[in-house]
Each structure stands twice: as structure tokens, then as C-alpha cells.
Amino acid sequence: MFEFVEKYIDLVIKLLMVAVAVASLASMFMIFGFAPTEAVMGLPQKIFYYHVPIAILSYAGFFICFVGSAVYLYTGRHEHDAYAVSGAEVGTLFITLVMITGMLWGKPSWGAYWTWDPRLTTSLVLWLIYTGYLLLRSQVEDSTLRAKYAAVMGIVGFVDVPIVHYSVQLWTRGIHPVVDKSGADHGMDPRMLKTLMLCFPTMALIFALLFAVRFRYEMMSRRLDMLKSQSNESGIAGN
Amino acid sequence: MSYVVAAYAAIWVLFIIYFFVVMSKTASVGKSLASMTKGAKADGQDANLSSQV
User: Fold this and answer.
1) Residue of A nearest to B29 (CA)
2) Residues with Cβ < 8 Å from A156, sequence gap 6 or more?
3) Quick check: helix, strand or coil at residue A42?
4) Residue A5: what are its φ and ψ, rounded to 5°?
5) ipTM
6) d(CA A159, CA A179)
7) Which of A9, A144, A173, B24 is the most exposed place for a label (fewest CB within 10 A)?
8) Exposed, middle or buried by CB within 10 Å (0-12, 13-18, 19+), for A26?
């Protein structure tokens, strides 16, 4: 599986770049040229079309980190740690954007950039956990120790993801709306729904592209480290 | 309108910056890898030559 990914990753990245360009243009047209302006919130509601898919995909990044960390601890194979760090980094980028776009939507809707609402607070905790994860990785020099410590944090940190997702239901006093209401009574205009349905795959493609480039970089830098340590060893042996 | 523009600008700017930072780091690692591989090949050739001698 891993050899297959490594062999075709350059081709996959090129294809994803084309797909991202097409899907991004289409989604921007749908958001600003097709979807109607919401009657109560007005234009700021248009932030919703990227805000929601980005939030869901940040969970995907942390899930990849969780699985990669667990498999790394079980097998000890370093490529699983590469999956974990790539997922965590792209997930952190996405959760950062969720918080920025959320604040920019919150100000015109709630009158404040930030409130200590359960969804916002748990999202901030999630952001802190994975920023901490990345900081931890940058502070440990030994690659095996770094992978082990990070794997433990990647597994424990994932506990916050379901808490963030269900915080709206768990603490009903918050002001963040429930946006994942499914079924016929979601009350959304069909054009809004179509736009959102296009924005999900667009963001998924962007996520896949960023994850692929990050994963390729991680594997190449690990190979370089390995070559350097081999040449150092052979230099010492030669001396 | 300014909030919508700010939100979409933030999204695209961060995506593009992240993409290009990772791509430039990859290019730099790629260069180092290529030079190390060349060096290793050259060493191998030297070794072959010395073994032939």
C-alpha cells in the first residue's frame, strides 16, 4: 500500500491541482452567483459554505493523525508517523481557518468576534491540543522518541473531536447553531443546499492536495535524514 | 460584505501560503537528495574503479 502511494504521489498531486482549480472556481461561482442571500443574516451567511466543510475536514485530519499514531505505536513503522504528522498539520491549518471564519461570521451575526460558547471553547481547546502536538514534535530531536511522544498525544488529543462536534447538543445553552440537521426539514433553500454540496468536495480536494504535498515532503525529508546518517556512519567507519 | 471578503481572503491566502511553503521545502529537500544520490553514485563508481585497479 505504502509503496503504491509513494510511486504515484507525484501524478496524484498534479491531478489534484487541476481538480482543485476547477472545483474552486465552480464553488466560488455557486456561492456568489447562484446561492441566494439569506434573508436574516444577509451576506455574512455566505461564509457558511466554506466554514462547515472546513470544520468537518479538520476532523478528518485529526482522525488520520489518530489512526496513524495508533498504527505507529502498534507496528513501529515510521511511515505511519508520517501520515500522522501530515494529518495533524493539515487539520491544524483547517481548524485555524474554522476559527478565523467563525469569528468573521460571528461579529455581524452575534455582535462579537468571540464568546465563550461551548462550540467555540471546545474548538479553541482542539486548536491548542494540535498546536501543542506540532510544538512537541519540533522540540524532540530523537526521531523515534518524537514519533512515540507525538503518537500518544495524537491519540489522546482526538478525544476532543467528538466533544467539539457534539458540544452543541451536550450544552444546549450555547449560541452556535446546529448546522448538521438532516432530513427534509433542514429549512435550507435548494440552491443553498446545492452550493453546500459542491463546497464539500471542493474542500475535500483541497484537503487531499495539501495532505499529499505534506506527506511527500515528510517522506523525502526522512529519506534525506537516513542518507545523511548512513553517510556519516560510513565516514566514521572509513576513518 | 467586508466580513465575507475577509473570510474568503483568509481561506485562500492561508491555503496558498501553506501550499507554496511545503512545495518550496520539498524542492529544497529534493535538491539535497539529488546531490547526495549523485555523491553516493560517484563514490560507488570510484569504488568500482579502485576495485578494477
Assistant:
1) A221
2) none
3) strand
4) -60, -45
5) 0.88
6) 21
7) A173
8) middle
Nearest to B6 among A28, A104, A209 (CB): A104
Q: Closest partner residue to A224 among B3, B14, B29, by Cβ?
A: B29
CA distance readout (Å), B23 to A30, A97, A134, A213: 29, 20, 19, 7
Interval B17-51: pLDDT, tens: 999 999 999 999 999 988 887 776 666 544 443 33
CB proximity under 8 Å: B 25-44 to A: 25-26, 29-30, 32-33, 36-37, 39-40
Q: Is B24 touching A (CB cutoff 8 A)? A: no
pTM above 0.95, yes or no: no
- CA A211 – CA A141 distance, rounded (Å): 24
> What whole-number distance in Å separates Cα of residue A219 and Cα of residue A225?
10
Nearest to A144 by CA among A230, A222, A66: A222
| Structure confidence by residue, pLDDT tens digits, A130-147 | 999 999 999 998 889 999
* Residue A239's pLDDT band (cuts 50, 70, 90): low
